[in-house]
Amino acid sequence: MDFCSSHKQVDTVQGLTITTTLTKQLNSTTHHDMFDLLKIKLFGRQPVAKISDQLLDALIERDYESNAGIVKTKLQNINSDSQAGKNRIAAGIIKLANKNFDNLDGLIGKANEDSRDIMMWAEYPRCTSWF
Asked: Which of 33, 63, 92, 103 could disulfide-link to 118, CB 3.0 to 4.6 Å?
């Protein structure tokens, strides 16, 4: 059974005590996950998905074959400060739409209200619920 939990964690790294509040999925933590958490604590950077234009095109073609052109046009309506941000949001929308063309407009609207919701639902599905 997987579920999410918030807890305070105290670590000692090179003689420094680090206290953080973490939300993690219980019963599925791996050494790789622990290494990622350590990198976040030490360097202060959270890894984020990097979606290239080519990868985004491949995702659209895979999920919407004959409607790919229409989907690309719809995704141009996403508001973002950068192309990288727009691609990340678009990839999240594609995932959440689950190949359902009718879901795209609502998800794009939600992304333009607050794109963090789309990214959270798409990138952390076990720790969030949506719709």
From this structure: 92
Q: Is the pTM of this model over 0.70?
A: no
Tell me if 116 sits within 8 A of 86, measured CB to CB.
Answer: no
Structure tokens at 24: 């993690």
pLDDT above 90: percentage of residues in the chain:
50
Question: Token digits for 43?
Answer: 């360097």
d(CA 106, CA 113): 11
How many other CB atoms are there within 10 angstroms of residue 86's CB atom? Answer: 20
The larger pLDDT score, comparing residue 53 to residue 34, is at: 53
Residue range 16-24: average pLDDT? 44
Q: Is 56 helix (H, G, I), strand (E, B) or coil?
A: helix
Residues in the chain: 131
pLDDT over 90 at 54, yes or no? yes
Quick count: other Cβ atoms within 10 Å of Cβ 121? 20
The type of residue at 29 is T
Cβ-proximal residues to 100 (8 Å cutoff; 6+ apart), any chain:
none
Give, in order, the Cα–Cα distances in Å from 102 to each of 15, 61, 71, 96, 98.
Answer: 54, 16, 11, 12, 10
